[in-house]
Amino acid sequence: MLSGPAAFGGLTLRRVLRTSLWSRQSISSSMTYLILLCVNYNLCYACGQAEYKIGDEHCTAWTSTSCAPCTDSTFNDQPSGREQCSPCTVCDEGKISLQFMKECTHYSDTQCGVLEGHYCINPYMGGCRAANKHTACKPGQFIKQPGTEYTDTVCEDCSDNSYSDGSSMPCKPHTE
């Protein structure tokens, strides 16, 4: 339990409770003050966005977490206790199916988009981290559903007496 001159702005707990006995409102106010003091007394914060934790000590009731800002080409998009910021994604890093859309900041990762003729296989925060080329239908198949930014092309076999080179939507009937 808290006591001493530091508690309640120089008042001791005993004195606050003794003077509060005369009124229910005072007791209620004193208890609220006591609860708020206890809650605020032990808050411990993680590092914020664009920061990472430095040092080995975690925060306690008497010390705070030490944080440092993210450096170039790194980010942290949410408060955390991480010991380093994440590296920014590079859209063309061996992934020729992606294109640059939005610059990396210390608060958010790079946003990459999908190149024409590809679909996203790893969506992330409004962008894409990896994509594949749309499936090409084979001769004897038609495009049942064209590919989109997030779905692959759907191919289906032509029925008897029809054909397709794989690039058309409907199959064409054989002519005699």
UniProtKB/TrEMBL annotation:
GO cellular component, one term: external side of plasma membrane
SUPFAM superfamilies for the chain: TNF receptor-like
GO aspect biological process, one term: negative regulation of alpha-beta T cell proliferation
Covalent S-S links between cysteines: C70-C85
Matching InterPro entries: TNFR/NGFR_Cys_rich_reg
Pfam families per record: TNFR_c6
Transmembrane regions: none
Protein name, entry field: TNFR-Cys domain-containing protein
Domain of life: Eukaryota
All residue ranges annotated as the TNFR-Cys domain in the record: 69-112
Keywords: Disulfide bond
Per-repeat ranges for TNFR-Cys: 69-112
UniProt key word Magnesium: no
